Amino acid sequence: MTDNCLVLTGELVKAPTVSITPAGIAHCQFALEHRSVQVEEGMSRQAYARIQVVATGQWSQNLSRELVAGSKVKVSGFINRHESRNGNPILVLHAQHIEMIN
Question: Which residue of 26, 46, 51, 53 is 20 to 30 Å from 96, comparing CA positions?
Answer without folding.
Answer: 46
